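User: Predict the complex.
Assistant: Input components as received:
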Amino acid sequence: MMHVVVQPRILRQAAEKNSNPVAASERVSLPAANIVAVESGWNIQIAAPGLTKESFQLKVEGRNLELRAAYPSTEADGQKRLRREFGEGVLSRTFQLPDTADTTAIQARYEAGVLTIHLPKKAPVKVEIA
Amino acid sequence: MKLIQHQPATNASRFDQFVDEFFNRGLNSFFGGDHFASSPSVNVFETNTDYLIEVAAPGLEKQDFEVKVEGEFLIISSEKAQRAGQETDGKYLRKEFNYATFSRSFRLPDSVQADQIKASYENGVLNLTLPKSEMEVQKYRTIEIE
């Protein structure tokens, strides 16, 4: 079977790094992401329902943007689990940023279960002609 | 007595859902390098007095949801009207989730009081509380030891 992975031109997802060693009991999953090109740069939307904004860790390392968020591990007392499809373990995903992104001015906002990361473009450098 | 997810065999929205998924997938999906989520994940818990259902549908507003009981089925769906200008704000380079149109159904146990179901939407999760009938609750009462 042909298996071709086409990498998006601008934002490529970097290979999952082992920079965050996790306990064996922690289930790490890859959150779904939408990437939207806007005039001022890019918006990365991460589907992360049921968290709070304090749950997220975002860091830039070189050209990688690393996202990590942990769900609270405890299940409420007296609750019997009949089905569990989300809300457990750790969400982790790394994005490789384009050279044209201004990594010093990244902004993030958590709303309705979606973390939106705004990645601005670098201001163009103008060369004065003497 | 279990909450069993029900997939209706004939559902008009099935086709729409297929079309929706088909056209929202990137070219990558044809080659097996991508995935797309449009049907929300669900958690179901049971306590002595209630069933609790959590539906993960990030990026919506509470008025986008419809929750109804039809016969023995609980049907949770969303219909988010595209806001004017929303799609033209930017160009999608990658699209892996969109919960704007979905429908999930559950077969309700007889013990649920269908007219007492409560729902709230918070942090992208629709929380439903389905109280059990008095009869069912009494089965679980603890007996004081004198």
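The domain at 4-26+37-81+98-139 of chain B is CATH 2.60.40.790 (Immunoglobulin-like).
Let me know if you want any component modeled separately.
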